[in-house]
Amino acid sequence: MHSRGFKNLINGNTINISNFEGHNYKRMIKFLTQFGRYILLLKKVFSKPEKPSLYFKQTMSEFVNLGLNSIGIIAIISFFMGAVITLQTAYNTENPIYPKYLIGLGCRDSMILEFSSTIAALILAGKVGSNIAAEIGTMRVTEQIDALEIMGVNSASYLILPKLIATLIFNPLLTLIAIIVGIFGGGIAGTLAGVITTENFIYGIQYAFIPYYIVYSLIKTVFFAFIITSVSAFQGYYVDGGSLEVGRASTKAVVFSSVLILLFNVILTQLLLS
Amino acid sequence: MIQVKNLYKSFNGKTVLENISVTFESGKTNLIIGRSGSGKTVLLKSIVGLHEIDSGEIWYEKTLFNKLDFAGKKVIRSEMGMLFQGSALFDSLTVEQNVGFPLDMFTDSPPEEKMDRVNFCLKRVDILNANNLYPSELSGGMKKRVAIARAIALNPKYLFCDEPNSGLDPITAILIDALIKELTEEYSMTTIVNTHDMNSVMEIGEKIVFISEGVKCWEGNKNDILNSDCSSLNDFVFANSLAKKLRTQAKT
Protein backbone atom coordinates (compact mmCIF):
# COMPACT_ATOMS: atom_id res chain seq x y z
CA MET A 1 0.00 0.00 0.00
CA HIS A 2 2.72 2.37 1.07
CA SER A 3 4.81 1.47 -1.90
CA ARG A 4 1.93 2.02 -4.32
CA GLY A 5 1.16 5.50 -2.86
CA PHE A 6 4.78 6.41 -3.26
CA LYS A 7 4.67 5.30 -6.84
CA ASN A 8 1.61 7.46 -7.54
CA LEU A 9 3.27 10.45 -5.94
CA ILE A 10 6.24 10.41 -8.25
CA ASN A 11 4.23 9.22 -11.16
CA GLY A 12 6.87 8.92 -13.88
CA ASN A 13 9.21 6.72 -11.86
CA THR A 14 6.76 3.89 -11.29
CA ILE A 15 8.56 1.45 -13.54
CA ASN A 16 11.93 2.09 -11.92
CA ILE A 17 10.58 1.37 -8.47
CA SER A 18 8.82 -1.81 -9.48
CA ASN A 19 12.01 -2.89 -11.23
CA PHE A 20 13.96 -2.19 -8.08
CA GLU A 21 11.51 -4.23 -6.01
CA GLY A 22 11.52 -7.02 -8.55
CA HIS A 23 15.30 -7.00 -8.63
CA ASN A 24 15.55 -7.24 -4.84
CA TYR A 25 12.92 -9.96 -4.77
CA LYS A 26 14.84 -11.95 -7.38
CA ARG A 27 18.07 -11.52 -5.45
CA MET A 28 16.40 -12.72 -2.28
CA ILE A 29 14.96 -15.76 -4.05
CA LYS A 30 18.36 -16.47 -5.61
CA PHE A 31 20.08 -16.21 -2.24
CA LEU A 32 17.55 -18.53 -0.57
CA THR A 33 17.80 -21.01 -3.44
CA GLN A 34 21.59 -21.06 -3.21
CA PHE A 35 21.48 -21.40 0.56
CA GLY A 36 19.01 -24.27 0.26
CA ARG A 37 21.26 -26.00 -2.28
CA TYR A 38 24.24 -25.52 0.05
CA ILE A 39 22.36 -27.17 2.93
CA LEU A 40 21.22 -30.03 0.70
CA LEU A 41 24.78 -30.51 -0.53
CA LEU A 42 26.01 -30.73 3.07
CA LYS A 43 23.31 -33.31 3.79
CA LYS A 44 24.64 -35.39 0.89
CA VAL A 45 28.23 -34.88 2.04
CA PHE A 46 27.52 -36.17 5.53
CA SER A 47 25.61 -39.27 4.46
CA LYS A 48 27.08 -42.71 5.11
CA PRO A 49 30.18 -43.42 2.98
CA GLU A 50 29.86 -46.29 0.49
CA LYS A 51 33.23 -47.75 1.32
CA PRO A 52 35.01 -46.27 4.35
CA SER A 53 38.40 -47.73 3.34
CA LEU A 54 38.34 -45.81 0.04
CA TYR A 55 37.29 -42.63 1.83
CA PHE A 56 40.18 -43.10 4.26
CA LYS A 57 42.62 -43.42 1.37
CA GLN A 58 41.15 -40.32 -0.23
CA THR A 59 41.38 -38.42 3.07
CA MET A 60 45.07 -39.29 3.38
CA SER A 61 45.66 -37.95 -0.11
CA GLU A 62 43.83 -34.72 0.79
CA PHE A 63 46.03 -34.33 3.87
CA VAL A 64 48.93 -34.05 1.46
CA ASN A 65 47.16 -31.88 -1.16
CA LEU A 66 45.43 -29.44 1.13
CA GLY A 67 47.46 -29.69 4.31
CA LEU A 68 51.12 -30.59 3.83
CA ASN A 69 51.34 -28.57 0.63
CA SER A 70 50.14 -25.47 2.50
CA ILE A 71 52.83 -25.59 5.17
CA GLY A 72 55.34 -23.74 2.99
CA ILE A 73 53.21 -20.72 2.21
CA ILE A 74 51.88 -20.47 5.76
CA ALA A 75 55.40 -20.71 7.22
CA ILE A 76 56.83 -18.06 4.86
CA ILE A 77 54.00 -15.59 5.38
CA SER A 78 53.90 -16.18 9.14
CA PHE A 79 57.63 -15.62 9.46
CA PHE A 80 57.51 -12.28 7.68
CA MET A 81 54.29 -11.18 9.35
CA GLY A 82 55.82 -11.92 12.76
CA ALA A 83 58.89 -9.95 11.74
CA VAL A 84 56.85 -6.95 10.55
CA ILE A 85 54.59 -6.98 13.61
CA THR A 86 57.65 -6.94 15.87
CA LEU A 87 59.32 -4.09 14.00
CA GLN A 88 56.13 -2.03 13.78
CA THR A 89 55.44 -2.52 17.49
CA ALA A 90 59.00 -1.54 18.28
CA TYR A 91 58.95 1.63 16.17
CA ASN A 92 55.57 2.70 17.50
CA THR A 93 56.41 2.21 21.17
CA GLU A 94 59.70 4.05 21.32
CA ASN A 95 58.92 5.46 24.72
CA PRO A 96 60.98 4.84 27.86
CA ILE A 97 57.76 4.28 29.81
CA TYR A 98 56.97 1.16 27.85
CA PRO A 99 59.07 -1.84 28.79
CA LYS A 100 60.81 -3.46 25.81
CA TYR A 101 59.36 -6.89 26.50
CA LEU A 102 55.96 -5.54 25.37
CA ILE A 103 57.25 -5.88 21.80
CA GLY A 104 57.46 -9.65 22.27
CA LEU A 105 54.07 -9.69 23.97
CA GLY A 106 52.54 -7.70 21.09
CA CYS A 107 53.99 -10.07 18.53
CA ARG A 108 52.77 -13.13 20.46
CA ASP A 109 49.22 -11.89 20.94
CA SER A 110 48.88 -10.61 17.38
CA MET A 111 50.05 -13.94 16.02
CA ILE A 112 47.84 -16.01 18.33
CA LEU A 113 44.68 -13.93 18.32
CA GLU A 114 44.43 -12.78 14.74
CA PHE A 115 47.14 -13.75 12.32
CA SER A 116 47.40 -17.51 12.86
CA SER A 117 43.66 -18.04 12.54
CA THR A 118 42.04 -15.25 10.54
CA ILE A 119 44.79 -13.98 8.25
CA ALA A 120 46.06 -17.52 7.66
CA ALA A 121 42.48 -18.56 6.87
CA LEU A 122 42.21 -15.77 4.31
CA ILE A 123 45.45 -16.97 2.73
CA LEU A 124 44.16 -20.55 2.73
CA ALA A 125 40.88 -19.38 1.21
CA GLY A 126 42.96 -18.17 -1.72
CA LYS A 127 45.17 -21.21 -2.00
CA VAL A 128 43.03 -24.15 -0.86
CA GLY A 129 39.61 -22.66 -1.70
CA SER A 130 40.43 -21.90 -5.31
CA ASN A 131 42.10 -25.29 -5.64
CA ILE A 132 39.00 -27.12 -4.35
CA ALA A 133 36.56 -25.11 -6.50
CA ALA A 134 38.69 -25.54 -9.63
CA GLU A 135 39.24 -29.26 -9.07
CA ILE A 136 35.60 -30.12 -8.40
CA GLY A 137 34.38 -27.66 -11.04
CA THR A 138 36.60 -29.25 -13.67
CA MET A 139 35.34 -32.67 -12.66
CA ARG A 140 31.81 -31.35 -13.13
CA VAL A 141 32.33 -29.87 -16.61
CA THR A 142 34.30 -32.89 -17.82
CA GLU A 143 31.49 -35.20 -16.64
CA GLN A 144 33.68 -36.99 -14.09
CA ILE A 145 31.07 -36.28 -11.41
CA ASP A 146 28.38 -37.70 -13.70
CA ALA A 147 30.56 -40.79 -14.13
CA LEU A 148 30.67 -41.22 -10.35
CA GLU A 149 26.90 -40.77 -10.09
CA ILE A 150 26.29 -43.35 -12.82
CA MET A 151 28.35 -45.87 -10.89
CA GLY A 152 26.04 -45.25 -7.91
CA VAL A 153 28.68 -43.34 -5.93
CA ASN A 154 27.51 -40.45 -3.76
CA SER A 155 29.78 -38.00 -5.57
CA ALA A 156 29.28 -35.15 -3.10
CA SER A 157 30.32 -37.29 -0.18
CA TYR A 158 33.18 -39.01 -2.00
CA LEU A 159 34.69 -35.76 -3.27
CA ILE A 160 33.96 -33.34 -0.45
CA LEU A 161 33.96 -35.30 2.83
CA PRO A 162 37.66 -36.29 2.65
CA LYS A 163 38.59 -32.66 1.93
CA LEU A 164 36.50 -31.49 4.88
CA ILE A 165 38.02 -34.03 7.26
CA ALA A 166 41.53 -33.23 6.04
CA THR A 167 41.16 -29.46 6.47
CA LEU A 168 39.31 -29.71 9.78
CA ILE A 169 42.16 -31.79 11.20
CA PHE A 170 45.10 -30.17 9.43
CA ASN A 171 44.25 -26.47 9.57
CA PRO A 172 44.59 -26.32 13.38
CA LEU A 173 48.09 -27.74 12.88
CA LEU A 174 48.76 -25.00 10.34
CA THR A 175 47.57 -22.48 12.91
CA LEU A 176 50.03 -23.80 15.48
CA ILE A 177 52.79 -23.71 12.86
CA ALA A 178 51.84 -20.12 12.01
CA ILE A 179 52.02 -19.11 15.67
CA ILE A 180 55.40 -20.73 16.26
CA VAL A 181 57.01 -19.56 13.01
CA GLY A 182 55.51 -16.07 13.33
CA ILE A 183 56.83 -15.57 16.85
CA PHE A 184 60.18 -17.00 15.77
CA GLY A 185 60.26 -14.57 12.81
CA GLY A 186 59.43 -11.73 15.17
CA GLY A 187 62.28 -12.73 17.50
CA ILE A 188 64.80 -12.98 14.65
CA ALA A 189 63.76 -9.66 13.07
CA GLY A 190 63.67 -7.82 16.39
CA THR A 191 67.08 -9.07 17.41
CA LEU A 192 68.70 -8.48 14.02
CA ALA A 193 67.24 -4.97 13.81
CA GLY A 194 68.47 -4.30 17.32
CA VAL A 195 65.08 -3.15 18.59
CA ILE A 196 64.89 -5.78 21.34
CA THR A 197 67.22 -8.26 23.00
CA THR A 198 66.55 -11.97 22.79
CA GLU A 199 66.05 -12.12 26.57
CA ASN A 200 63.48 -9.33 26.49
CA PHE A 201 61.64 -10.89 23.57
CA ILE A 202 61.49 -14.29 25.27
CA TYR A 203 60.33 -12.66 28.50
CA GLY A 204 57.67 -10.78 26.50
CA ILE A 205 56.27 -13.84 24.81
CA GLN A 206 56.00 -15.56 28.21
CA TYR A 207 54.55 -12.57 30.03
CA ALA A 208 50.86 -12.72 31.03
CA PHE A 209 50.27 -15.65 28.71
CA ILE A 210 46.64 -16.78 28.54
CA PRO A 211 46.47 -20.38 27.23
CA TYR A 212 42.79 -19.90 26.37
CA TYR A 213 43.86 -17.63 23.49
CA ILE A 214 45.33 -20.68 21.77
CA VAL A 215 42.03 -22.54 22.24
CA TYR A 216 40.16 -19.50 20.90
CA SER A 217 42.41 -19.41 17.87
CA LEU A 218 42.02 -23.13 17.20
CA ILE A 219 38.22 -22.96 17.52
CA LYS A 220 38.17 -20.13 14.98
CA THR A 221 40.43 -22.13 12.68
CA VAL A 222 38.08 -25.11 12.72
CA PHE A 223 35.14 -22.88 11.76
CA PHE A 224 37.17 -21.19 9.04
CA ALA A 225 38.36 -24.54 7.66
CA PHE A 226 34.76 -25.66 7.38
CA ILE A 227 33.79 -22.42 5.62
CA ILE A 228 36.69 -22.55 3.15
CA THR A 229 36.17 -26.19 2.20
CA SER A 230 32.38 -26.34 2.10
CA VAL A 231 31.84 -23.01 0.33
CA SER A 232 34.55 -23.71 -2.25
CA ALA A 233 33.30 -27.24 -2.84
CA PHE A 234 29.76 -25.89 -3.24
CA GLN A 235 30.91 -23.39 -5.86
CA GLY A 236 32.76 -26.10 -7.78
CA TYR A 237 30.10 -28.79 -7.46
CA TYR A 238 27.38 -26.74 -9.10
CA VAL A 239 29.43 -25.27 -11.95
CA ASP A 240 27.49 -25.28 -15.18
CA GLY A 241 29.32 -24.54 -18.41
CA GLY A 242 33.00 -24.66 -19.29
CA SER A 243 36.41 -23.35 -18.34
CA LEU A 244 35.17 -19.77 -18.00
CA GLU A 245 32.59 -20.84 -15.42
CA VAL A 246 35.19 -22.91 -13.55
CA GLY A 247 37.34 -19.78 -13.32
CA ARG A 248 34.38 -17.77 -12.07
CA ALA A 249 33.57 -20.47 -9.51
CA SER A 250 37.14 -20.31 -8.20
CA THR A 251 36.91 -16.55 -7.83
CA LYS A 252 33.53 -16.80 -6.12
CA ALA A 253 34.88 -19.48 -3.79
CA VAL A 254 37.67 -17.19 -2.63
CA VAL A 255 35.47 -14.09 -2.33
CA PHE A 256 32.57 -15.78 -0.50
CA SER A 257 34.89 -17.74 1.80
CA SER A 258 36.82 -14.58 2.67
CA VAL A 259 33.70 -12.56 3.43
CA LEU A 260 32.27 -15.38 5.56
CA ILE A 261 35.58 -15.76 7.40
CA LEU A 262 35.56 -12.06 8.27
CA LEU A 263 31.92 -12.20 9.35
CA PHE A 264 32.40 -15.29 11.50
CA ASN A 265 35.58 -13.79 12.93
CA VAL A 266 33.49 -11.02 14.47
CA ILE A 267 30.76 -13.39 15.66
CA LEU A 268 33.18 -15.93 17.16
CA THR A 269 35.30 -13.25 18.80
CA GLN A 270 32.22 -11.84 20.48
CA LEU A 271 31.06 -15.29 21.56
CA LEU A 272 34.42 -16.61 22.73
CA LEU A 273 36.07 -13.56 24.26
CA SER A 274 33.17 -11.61 25.75
CA MET B 1 14.92 -53.93 -21.79
CA ILE B 2 14.47 -50.24 -21.10
CA GLN B 3 11.15 -48.54 -21.72
CA VAL B 4 10.56 -44.82 -21.85
CA LYS B 5 6.95 -43.68 -21.66
CA ASN B 6 5.63 -40.18 -22.35
CA LEU B 7 8.79 -38.48 -21.20
CA TYR B 8 8.84 -34.69 -20.89
CA LYS B 9 11.85 -32.66 -19.89
CA SER B 10 12.34 -28.91 -19.80
CA PHE B 11 15.01 -26.50 -18.62
CA ASN B 12 13.96 -23.12 -17.22
CA GLY B 13 10.54 -23.44 -18.80
CA LYS B 14 11.90 -24.41 -22.22
CA THR B 15 10.74 -27.84 -23.33
CA VAL B 16 13.66 -29.93 -24.54
CA LEU B 17 12.00 -33.35 -24.78
CA GLU B 18 8.34 -33.77 -25.59
CA ASN B 19 6.31 -36.93 -25.15
CA ILE B 20 9.09 -39.41 -25.92
CA SER B 21 8.01 -43.04 -25.82
CA VAL B 22 10.41 -45.73 -26.94
CA THR B 23 11.53 -49.24 -26.06
CA PHE B 24 15.21 -50.18 -26.13
CA GLU B 25 15.67 -53.87 -26.64
CA SER B 26 17.94 -56.24 -24.73
CA GLY B 27 21.02 -57.65 -26.43
CA LYS B 28 20.83 -55.02 -29.15
CA THR B 29 22.69 -51.87 -30.03
CA ASN B 30 20.01 -49.19 -29.85
CA LEU B 31 20.85 -45.85 -31.41
CA ILE B 32 19.46 -42.43 -30.64
CA ILE B 33 20.27 -40.20 -33.58
CA GLY B 34 19.57 -36.59 -34.40
CA ARG B 35 21.18 -33.25 -35.10
CA SER B 36 23.28 -31.45 -32.51
CA GLY B 37 20.95 -29.82 -29.99
CA SER B 38 18.04 -32.11 -30.82
CA GLY B 39 17.88 -33.47 -27.26
CA LYS B 40 19.76 -36.78 -27.64
CA THR B 41 22.11 -36.23 -24.71
CA VAL B 42 19.30 -34.93 -22.51
CA LEU B 43 17.29 -38.06 -23.34
CA LEU B 44 20.23 -40.33 -22.53
CA LYS B 45 21.00 -38.50 -19.30
CA SER B 46 17.32 -38.62 -18.35
CA ILE B 47 17.27 -42.37 -18.94
CA VAL B 48 20.25 -42.93 -16.66
CA GLY B 49 18.85 -40.54 -14.05
CA LEU B 50 21.38 -37.72 -14.35
CA HIS B 51 18.50 -35.40 -15.22
CA GLU B 52 15.25 -35.38 -13.26
CA ILE B 53 12.40 -35.64 -15.74
CA ASP B 54 9.30 -33.42 -15.61
CA SER B 55 6.88 -36.27 -16.25
CA GLY B 56 6.76 -39.72 -17.77
CA GLU B 57 8.13 -43.11 -16.86
CA ILE B 58 11.45 -44.88 -17.30
CA TRP B 59 11.31 -48.63 -16.80
CA TYR B 60 14.30 -50.92 -16.37
CA GLU B 61 12.72 -54.33 -16.93
CA LYS B 62 9.93 -54.24 -14.32
CA THR B 63 11.33 -51.44 -12.17
CA LEU B 64 10.07 -47.87 -12.47
CA PHE B 65 13.48 -46.20 -12.28
CA ASN B 66 12.50 -42.54 -12.08
CA LYS B 67 10.43 -43.05 -8.94
CA LEU B 68 13.20 -44.79 -7.00
CA ASP B 69 15.12 -43.08 -4.19
CA PHE B 70 18.94 -42.82 -4.19
CA ALA B 71 19.37 -46.29 -2.66
CA GLY B 72 16.96 -47.85 -5.16
CA LYS B 73 18.65 -46.15 -8.10
CA LYS B 74 22.00 -47.31 -6.77
CA VAL B 75 20.93 -50.94 -7.24
CA ILE B 76 20.02 -50.33 -10.89
CA ARG B 77 23.12 -48.20 -11.40
CA SER B 78 25.31 -51.06 -10.28
CA GLU B 79 24.15 -52.73 -13.49
CA MET B 80 24.94 -49.69 -15.67
CA GLY B 81 28.07 -48.71 -17.50
CA MET B 82 28.42 -45.43 -19.31
CA LEU B 83 30.82 -44.03 -21.85
CA PHE B 84 30.77 -40.24 -21.81
CA GLN B 85 31.40 -37.93 -24.74
CA GLY B 86 34.69 -36.71 -23.26
CA SER B 87 35.49 -40.13 -21.75
CA ALA B 88 35.23 -38.70 -18.19
CA LEU B 89 38.23 -40.61 -16.90
CA PHE B 90 39.37 -39.51 -13.45
CA ASP B 91 42.38 -37.27 -14.07
CA SER B 92 44.08 -38.08 -10.80
CA LEU B 93 43.99 -41.86 -11.35
CA THR B 94 46.04 -44.04 -13.68
CA VAL B 95 44.44 -46.20 -16.36
CA GLU B 96 44.58 -49.20 -14.05
CA GLN B 97 43.06 -47.26 -11.14
CA ASN B 98 40.33 -45.84 -13.38
CA VAL B 99 39.23 -49.27 -14.54
CA GLY B 100 39.60 -50.69 -11.04
CA PHE B 101 37.62 -47.86 -9.41
CA PRO B 102 34.16 -49.48 -9.64
CA LEU B 103 35.65 -52.75 -8.42
CA ASP B 104 37.28 -51.02 -5.44
CA MET B 105 34.08 -49.16 -4.64
CA PHE B 106 31.55 -51.95 -5.00
CA THR B 107 33.28 -55.29 -4.53
CA ASP B 108 35.20 -56.91 -1.73
CA SER B 109 37.28 -59.14 -3.97
CA PRO B 110 40.95 -59.60 -3.09
CA PRO B 111 43.37 -57.22 -4.85
CA GLU B 112 44.76 -59.95 -7.14
CA GLU B 113 41.29 -60.81 -8.37
CA LYS B 114 40.52 -57.15 -9.02
CA MET B 115 43.78 -56.76 -10.90
CA ASP B 116 42.96 -59.79 -13.04
CA ARG B 117 39.60 -58.25 -13.90
CA VAL B 118 41.21 -54.87 -14.69
CA ASN B 119 43.75 -56.52 -16.99
CA PHE B 120 41.03 -58.59 -18.63
CA CYS B 121 38.92 -55.51 -19.36
CA LEU B 122 41.90 -53.57 -20.67
CA LYS B 123 42.92 -56.49 -22.88
CA ARG B 124 39.36 -56.77 -24.11
CA VAL B 125 39.49 -53.18 -25.39
CA ASP B 126 43.02 -53.64 -26.77
CA ILE B 127 44.79 -51.42 -24.29
CA LEU B 128 48.12 -53.00 -23.52
CA ASN B 129 51.09 -51.72 -21.51
CA ALA B 130 49.29 -48.57 -20.46
CA ASN B 131 48.28 -49.53 -16.92
CA ASN B 132 50.34 -46.84 -15.25
CA LEU B 133 49.63 -43.98 -17.64
CA TYR B 134 47.42 -41.06 -16.66
CA PRO B 135 44.48 -39.95 -18.85
CA SER B 136 46.43 -36.85 -19.93
CA GLU B 137 49.01 -39.18 -21.50
CA LEU B 138 46.47 -41.02 -23.66
CA SER B 139 45.15 -40.29 -27.15
CA GLY B 140 41.42 -39.65 -27.71
CA GLY B 141 40.81 -43.19 -28.98
CA MET B 142 42.69 -44.74 -26.07
CA LYS B 143 40.70 -42.66 -23.60
CA LYS B 144 37.46 -43.97 -25.12
CA ARG B 145 38.73 -47.54 -24.87
CA VAL B 146 39.76 -47.13 -21.25
CA ALA B 147 36.36 -45.57 -20.53
CA ILE B 148 34.70 -48.61 -22.15
CA ALA B 149 36.90 -50.91 -20.05
CA ARG B 150 35.79 -49.04 -16.92
CA ALA B 151 32.15 -49.23 -18.04
CA ILE B 152 32.29 -53.02 -18.43
CA ALA B 153 34.38 -53.69 -15.31
CA LEU B 154 31.34 -54.69 -13.25
CA ASN B 155 29.72 -56.74 -16.04
CA PRO B 156 26.87 -54.29 -16.62
CA LYS B 157 23.47 -55.21 -17.95
CA TYR B 158 23.04 -51.80 -19.56
CA LEU B 159 25.64 -49.84 -21.51
CA PHE B 160 25.15 -46.19 -22.43
CA CYS B 161 27.41 -44.39 -24.87
CA ASP B 162 27.16 -40.65 -25.44
CA GLU B 163 28.69 -39.73 -28.80
CA PRO B 164 31.37 -42.44 -28.62
CA ASN B 165 32.94 -41.30 -31.91
CA SER B 166 33.13 -37.59 -31.31
CA GLY B 167 36.60 -36.25 -31.95
CA LEU B 168 37.91 -39.51 -33.40
CA ASP B 169 39.27 -40.19 -36.88
CA PRO B 170 37.04 -42.39 -39.10
CA ILE B 171 39.12 -45.54 -38.66
CA THR B 172 39.29 -45.30 -34.86
CA ALA B 173 35.58 -44.45 -34.86
CA ILE B 174 34.79 -47.66 -36.74
CA LEU B 175 36.93 -49.66 -34.29
CA ILE B 176 35.10 -48.14 -31.31
CA ASP B 177 31.74 -48.91 -32.95
CA ALA B 178 32.77 -52.47 -33.60
CA LEU B 179 33.94 -52.84 -30.02
CA ILE B 180 30.62 -51.57 -28.65
CA LYS B 181 28.69 -53.96 -30.87
CA GLU B 182 30.90 -56.93 -29.96
CA LEU B 183 30.59 -56.23 -26.25
CA THR B 184 26.82 -55.83 -26.53
CA GLU B 185 26.52 -59.25 -28.14
CA GLU B 186 29.11 -60.89 -25.92
CA TYR B 187 27.49 -59.81 -22.64
CA SER B 188 23.87 -59.58 -23.93
CA MET B 189 23.68 -56.00 -22.75
CA THR B 190 21.02 -53.43 -23.55
CA THR B 191 23.14 -50.80 -25.23
CA ILE B 192 22.01 -47.29 -26.06
CA VAL B 193 24.30 -45.18 -28.21
CA ASN B 194 23.82 -41.50 -28.85
CA THR B 195 25.29 -40.44 -32.14
CA HIS B 196 25.00 -38.23 -35.20
CA ASP B 197 27.57 -40.24 -37.09
CA MET B 198 25.92 -41.94 -40.08
CA ASN B 199 28.76 -44.48 -40.29
CA SER B 200 27.80 -45.71 -36.85
CA VAL B 201 24.15 -45.82 -37.86
CA MET B 202 24.90 -48.04 -40.84
CA GLU B 203 27.48 -50.18 -39.02
CA ILE B 204 25.88 -50.96 -35.67
CA GLY B 205 22.33 -49.61 -35.68
CA GLU B 206 20.06 -52.52 -34.86
CA LYS B 207 17.34 -50.28 -33.55
CA ILE B 208 17.34 -46.59 -34.37
CA VAL B 209 15.34 -43.73 -32.87
CA PHE B 210 15.48 -40.37 -34.61
CA ILE B 211 14.91 -37.26 -32.48
CA SER B 212 14.31 -33.84 -33.95
CA GLU B 213 13.78 -30.73 -31.82
CA GLY B 214 12.97 -32.84 -28.78
CA VAL B 215 10.34 -34.97 -30.49
CA LYS B 216 10.69 -38.58 -31.59
CA CYS B 217 10.14 -38.47 -35.35
CA TRP B 218 11.06 -41.93 -36.50
CA GLU B 219 11.90 -45.41 -35.22
CA GLY B 220 13.22 -48.37 -37.18
CA ASN B 221 16.40 -50.19 -38.18
CA LYS B 222 19.30 -49.46 -40.48
CA ASN B 223 17.64 -51.18 -43.43
CA ASP B 224 14.54 -48.98 -43.22
CA ILE B 225 16.35 -45.71 -42.65
CA LEU B 226 17.27 -45.10 -46.30
CA ASN B 227 13.68 -45.48 -47.43
CA SER B 228 11.97 -43.46 -44.77
CA ASP B 229 9.17 -41.00 -45.50
CA CYS B 230 10.24 -38.74 -42.65
CA SER B 231 11.54 -35.59 -44.30
CA SER B 232 13.58 -34.37 -41.31
CA LEU B 233 15.22 -37.81 -41.10
CA ASN B 234 16.01 -37.74 -44.82
CA ASP B 235 17.53 -34.26 -44.43
CA PHE B 236 19.69 -35.65 -41.62
CA VAL B 237 20.70 -38.90 -43.34
CA PHE B 238 21.44 -37.32 -46.69
CA ALA B 239 23.00 -34.16 -45.34
CA ASN B 240 26.41 -34.54 -46.96
CA SER B 241 26.99 -34.29 -50.70
CA LEU B 242 28.35 -37.84 -51.03
CA ALA B 243 25.20 -39.31 -49.53
CA LYS B 244 23.04 -37.12 -51.75
CA LYS B 245 24.98 -38.23 -54.81
CA LEU B 246 24.69 -41.91 -53.90
CA ARG B 247 20.98 -41.50 -53.33
CA THR B 248 20.48 -39.85 -56.70
CA GLN B 249 22.49 -42.60 -58.40
CA ALA B 250 20.46 -45.27 -56.62
CA LYS B 251 17.22 -43.68 -57.81
CA THR B 252 18.37 -43.45 -61.40
Low-confidence stretches of chain B: none
Gap between N and C termini of chain A, in Å?
44 Å
Multimerization status: heterodimer
Tally of extended strands of chain A? 0
> How much of the polypeptide of chain A forms β-strand, as a percent range?
under 5%
Strand order of the largest sheet of chain B: 6-7-8-3-9-10
Helix content estimate of chain A = over 70%
The greatest inter-chain interface is formed by:
A-B, 16 and 26 residues
CATH class type of chain B: Alpha Beta
- The domain tally of chain B reads 1
By secondary-structure content and strand pairing, the structural class of chain B works out as: alpha/beta
The biggest beta sheet of chain A, please?
none
Identify the CATH homologous superfamily of chain B.
P-loop containing nucleotide triphosphate hydrolases
Are there runs of chain A of 5+ residues with pLDDT below 50, and where? Answer: 1-12
Question: Termini distance of chain B?
Answer: 41 Å
The total of helices of chain B stands at: 9
**How many domains comprise the coordinates of chain A?**
2
How does this structure look, described?
The complex is a heterodimer of chains A (274) and B (252). Chain A is mainly alpha-helical. Chain A contains nine helices and no strands. Chain A has two domains: 1-45; 51-273, no CATH class. The radius of gyration of chain A is 24 Å and the shape is elongated. Chain B is α/β, with parallel strands linked by helices. Chain B has a single domain (2-251), classed as 3-Layer(aba) Sandwich (Rossmann fold). Chain B has nine helices and ten strands. Chain B has helices at 40-47, 70-77, 95-106, 111-124, 140-152, 170-187, 198-204, 231-237, 241-251, and strands at 2-11, 14-24, 29-33, 55-60, 63-64, 80-83, 158-162, 190-195, 207-212, 215-220. In chain B, the strands form two sheets. In chain B, strands 6-7-8-3-9-10 form a six-stranded mixed sheet, with helices on both faces. Chain B has a four-stranded antiparallel sheet with strand order 2-1-4-5, covered by helices on one side. In chain B, helix 3 packs across helix 4 (111-124) and helix 3 runs parallel beside helix 5 (140-152). The N and C termini of chain B lie far apart (41 Å). The A-B interface holds A 50-51, 54, 138-139, 142-144, 146-147, 149-154 and B 45, 48-50, 70, 73-75, 77-78, 80-82, 84-86, 88-91, 101-102, 104-106, 160.
